[in-house]
Design goal:
The complex is a heterodimer of chains A (375) and B (600). Chain A is built from 16 helices and 15 strands. Chain A has 375 residues and is of the alpha/beta class. Chain A folds into 2 domains: 251 residues, Aldolase class I (TIM Barrel, Alpha-Beta Barrel); 61 residues, Arc Repressor Mutant, subunit A. In chain B, the strands form 7 sheets. An 8-stranded antiparallel sheet of chain B has the order 11-10-16-7-8-15-12-13. A 6-stranded mixed sheet of chain B has the order 2-3-1-4-5-6, with helices on both faces. In chain B, strands 21, 22, 23, 24, 25 and 26 form a 6-stranded antiparallel sheet that branches. The chains are: A alpha/beta (375), B alpha+beta (600).
């Protein structure tokens, strides 16, 4: 049976954050209908012949759902698709939407990994971001999560925020470390078109840290977290040994995945397809044709190779040359000979016996590396 | 060809850009039935797409019309079109020499412009009868009486014969035709004398070869006759002669006074140079017609394919353009920064722009052009004098005794309220004022002696912006003068970028150096390391800017749903990089090369 990663998208938030360009909406009144559609999509999985090695419920904010809605989805999932015995089952959450009861329910329903979006440890910064929660909400719920038995918790952080000083971020890191989460993600803020931050930046209203300070924060994260025993295993991700996010590792090692819900992407049999991102369109498509696929794209081999490389190189251990050969029946060093040599010379890439990986400099200029692998 | 010489009229139209020359020509062709309305594309005479778009005429052409006048007689009217731009004033003078009369078209709302004035003087020198045509009288802002007064006061022409028209609305067309018949004298010349035909234009036809457009001044010409080009002595056998109707239409004989074309299996337009005299090879004329000179390129620049593999295409395209343009010069050159390309010579800036645009548009080439340069005469300490049109060939300053640069006499015509600004501009451009004439109480002609290099730099643009488009400029080369010129080099991280070097007056070197380094700082994207942009004269650095190092170029997030989007982003970055030029370890965008061309 084919093992895939299963992703379920919950495109709702109580309030859209000022930096966020994800597929998420504040139209909470659509949730019941959406859940019905999602359940229908899940029921289509019956007899699909796949087994889910990992499940990831992301958003949006999956924890805006009621206990009953969460129950329905997970219950339907177990009924319709084979889920590996040792599967990693993650749910994303906002500290402002968690309660002890909800955490307890999630744990009972088999969710074994909790991802908490904290972003920063200063309420002033949370306010600028338009987050609906406080630092105190996080503290309370992290404790509650531990209490109900979550032993695999991720905390999401953002650096390079407006008004954020390197000291603020260092404080964030140190305070979070006190909770001993198994996994920490540190994302550099990027200003995406269509967000409030983007608009404010254009209007000159954001006081963003200098490039030097932004990099300082990144280096600080690497330094502090490594020192505390976290492995820096992907450009923006850190984990205690053995606690890397298995679902995301699937993306980076170019494994197959299936996405359910509005705007969710899938990659199976070298085809990439995705559902309609708009909620109503998604609901209606499911209702009328029981599928919501908006487009399917067949990925030519040249592009598969490029994707394999630029995803794999995100991992600090690099991409496995053997895995490339196994998949494409060609040596990576032959396909990308000149690019690899050039990047090595530039000090952006290094090669070991088995792997090809970014150097420390390459971490800052990863796009310049990835670019060279584009067809 | 039954119309006798007494009823032939050869004339041209003198007008400023946009004053309505082409529209008037169209109306004349329509009225005389030379072209049926349906066949009539707007502005038949401006054949090139580019000409039509810019509303200017680049190459002269001719067309004949039959007009039945009020006196009941049929007249043969030959309209010889003239190019309307300063770069082509020599071609204009040859077109004028082929005519007995000219229509001076003046926009009733704008009055006379410098260019028109210059061409009118040329026409008067050629003893042409001039008929003022006050056009665009339909415009609410038209002031025909004011325009007439200007013509009278500036040129001293009698405006009694002036015709009022609106070419756009077809008003006054018949009156223009009657005036041509009545006031322009018929051509002189004798069929019995040896052949003398003045070439006023030529074009390359893939079947006929180089075709000369001529006015027969003396004698006659027939097919299979042996002819000789008087400037080169080369002989050819006539394969076809004809008239322009307006398309080429073969005839048996062209006689004195007539206008037509001669084809003689001539391989190259360099053998049908404008101004040359064609004579009978067996019975040659004693003397050629006066006024022939070879058009010499005055402005040079490097043209490089933006993508190296287009070199051969560029070479072929330049060759094709040259087939029709004897004044276009090019030869291969190499630049360390830009690779293989061509050094190209032009009559002037417009000529350069036109060639560049045709290469890009008609031949689909993506070009990088280096800063245009005039031809400097450099006398070395060892007594040798060399012509330098390329900064790369600028000798070591220690070997230079003195440098001379080309100067022009420039006439600028403008409304009086801008005189202050324009004088200031001309002073900045190292001009020396010769005279200032009040044409009317509202308009002035300023005459300056000025270096050509200043004109080709940005004088046109500056003049336009400082007078809100109301000034017009004409100039002609007046000679060479000693000047204190230096070569300014641009260095990126210590390495000279040859394609960015240029020759500049010493007093301007500092300000230009500062402007350019600042501009380069704007257009060069930040890279993994700091980039020092320096401007230097010899080994002396006179300006410096720094492009700070890029600190990162990385996507923070990439998960399953992002791949397609992020891939597109990376593809775009790669595309952008492809268009960059590698100078040492620095990636230089194409815009960097534009930075030295123009300053805003």
């Amino acid at each position: 049976m084919k093992t895939i990663g299963l992703y379920i998208h919950i495109p709702f938030c109580i309030r859209k954050c000022n930096y966020c360009d994800f597929n998420s909406f504040e139209t909470l009144e659509l949730i019941p209908e959406y859940i019905d559609a999602l359940k229908r999509e899940i029921s289509n999985l019956k007899n699909c012949g796949y087994s889910a090695g990992t499940v990831y419920i992301g958003g949006g904010t999956p924890t805006v759902l009621t206990d009953n809605q969460l129950f329905c989805i997970l219950n339907d999932l177990y009924k319709n698709i084979n889920i590996a015995k040792n599967a990693e089952i993650t749910i994303e959450s906002n500290p402002g939407t968690l309660t002890l009861e909800k955490l307890h329910l999630l744990k009972t329903l088999g969710v074994n990994r909790l991802s908490i979006g904290l972003q920063a440890y200063q309420n002033s910064l949370l306010n600028i971001m338009g987050r609906i929660h406080t630092v105190e909400d996080f503290e309370k719920n992290f404790g509650a999560a531990r209490d109900v038995g979550f032993d695999n918790i991720n905390v999401d952080l953002i650096f390079g925020l407006p008004d954020q000083r390197p000291e603020d971020f260092e404080e964030t890191l140190r305070r979070v470390l006190k909770f001993l989460p198994e996994h920490i993600s540190c994302y550099a803020l990027s200003l995406e078109d269509g967000t409030k931050f983007y608009k404010w930046h254009k209007e000159g209203r954001l006081d963003l840290p200098s490039d030097d300070d932004e990099r300082k924060m990144y280096y600080k994260a690497i330094e502090i977290l490594s020192h505390q025993g976290y492995m820096h295993y992907e450009i923006s991700n850190f984990a205690l040994p053995g606690r890397e996010c298995r679902h995301n590792l699937g993306y980076w090692t170019y494994k197959e995945y299936l996405g359910l819900g509005a705007g969710a992407h899938s990659f199976i049999d070298n085809k990439r397809f995705y559902n309609h991102p708009a909620i109503l369109k998604y609901i209606e498509s499911i209702k009328t044709s029981s599928s919501a696929i908006a487009d399917i794209e067949s990925i030519p081999e040249k592009e598969q190779q490029a994707e394999f490389c630029f995803m794999g190189l995100r991992l600090l251990r690099g991409l496995n040359k053997g895995a490339f050969k196994q998949r494409f029946h060609k040596e990576i060093t032959e396909v990308y000979e000149s690019a690899i040599e050039k990047l090595k010379k530039q000090g952006l890439l290094e090669e070991s016996h088995e792997n090809l990986r970014l150097t420390a400099l390459g971490l800052d200029f990863a796009n310049m590396v990835f670019m060279e692998f584009m067809p | 060809m039954s119309i006798p010489r007494e009823r032939i009229r050869n004339f041209c139209i003198i007008a400023h850009i946009d004053h309505g020359k082409s529209t008037l020509a169209d109306r004349l062709l329509e009225y005389t039935g030379t072209i049926s309305d349906r066949k009539m594309e707007e502005q038949v005479l401006d054949k090139m797409e580019l000409e039509r778009e810019r509303g200017i005429t680049i190459k002269a052409k001719a067309v004949r019309m039959i007009y039945k006048a009020d006196d009941g007689q049929e007249y043969l009217l030959n309209l010889i079109d003239t190019p309307g731009h300063v770069d082509f004033s020599y071609e204009v003078s040859r077109s004028l020499a082929a005519c007995e009369g000219a229509l001076l078209v003046v926009d009733a709302s704008q009055g006379i412009e410098a260019q028109t004035l210059a061409n009118t003087y040329l026409a008067l020198e050629n003893n042409l009868e001039i008929i003022p045509v006050i056009n665009k009288i339909d415009l609410p802002s038209a002031e025909p009486e004011e325009a007439k007064r200007e013509i009278e006061e500036i040129i001293g022409l009698d405006v009694q014969n002036a015709v009022l028209t609106s070419a756009k609305q077809g008003l006054g067309i018949k009156e223009v035709l009657e005036a041509i018949v009545k006031f322009i004298p018929p051509p002189e010349g004798s069929n019995d004398k040896p052949l003398r035909a003045l070439i006023f234009d030529s074009l390359y036809d893939s079947y006929k070869g180089a075709v000369a457009f001529v006015r027969i001044m003396d004698g006659s010409v027939r097919p299979r006759q042996l002819i000789k080009m008087m400037s080169t002595g080369r002989t050819f056998e006539v394969t076809e002669i004809g008239i322009l109707n307006p398309d080429m239409q073969p005839v048996d004989r062209l006689e004195a006074g007539q206008v037509g074309y001669i084809a003689a299996s001539i391989k190259n337009v360099t053998d049908t140079r404008v101004g040359d005299t064609i004579t009978d090879a067996q019975k040659p004329a004693d003397k050629p017609l006066p006024g022939y000179r070879k058009a010499v390129p005055m402005v040079f620049c490097g043209m490089y394919p933006a993508e190296g593999e287009e070199y051969e295409d560029l070479k072929e395209a330049l060759g094709k353009l040259q087939l029709n343009d004897a004044s276009l010069f090019f030869e291969a050159e190499t630049s360390a920064a830009l690779g293989f390309g061509f050094r190209c010579g032009f009559l002037g800036l417009l000529h350069m722009d036109v060639v560049q645009e045709r290469l890009e548009r008609e031949y689909n080439l993506n070009l990088i052009t280096t800063a245009p340069s005039v031809v400097y005469k450099i006398t070395k300490t060892n007594g040798d004098t060399i012509d330098v049109d390329n900064p790369t060939n600028f000798p070591d300053p220690a070997e230079i005794a003195y440098i001379e640069e080309p100067y022009v006499d420039a006439s600028i015509m403008l409304p009086t309220e801008y005189v202050g600004q324009v004088m200031e501009l001309c002073q900045e451009k190292r001009g020396t004022m010769k005279t200032m004439e009040y044409v009317t109480e509202k308009r002035v002609i300023l005459r300056y002696e000025m270096p050509l290099s200043e004109i080709i730099y940005d004088l046109f643009d500056q003049l336009k912006s400082r007078t809100r488009g109301y000034a017009s400029l004409d100039y002609e080369l007046s000679g060479y003068k000693r000047s204190d010129m230096v070569k300014l080099d641009i260095l990126l991280n210590g390495e000279v970028v040859d394609a960015l070097s240029f020759i500049v007056h010493k007093d301007k070197a500092y300000s230009r150096a500062r402007q350019i380094t600042e501009k380069l700082k704007e257009v060069i994207p930040r890279q993994m390391f700091e980039i020092a942009i320096q401007a230097a004269i010899g080994s002396k650095i006179i300006a410096r800017e720094t492009v700070k190092a890029l600190r990162k170029n990385v996507l923070a997030k990439c998960y399953g749903g992002d791949i397609t989007r992020k891939k597109k982003l990376l593809e775009k970055q790669k595309e952008g990089k492809k268009r960059m030029r590698q100078i040492g370890n620095v990636q230089l965008p194409q815009e960097a090369f534009m930075a030295v061309l123009k300053m805003e």
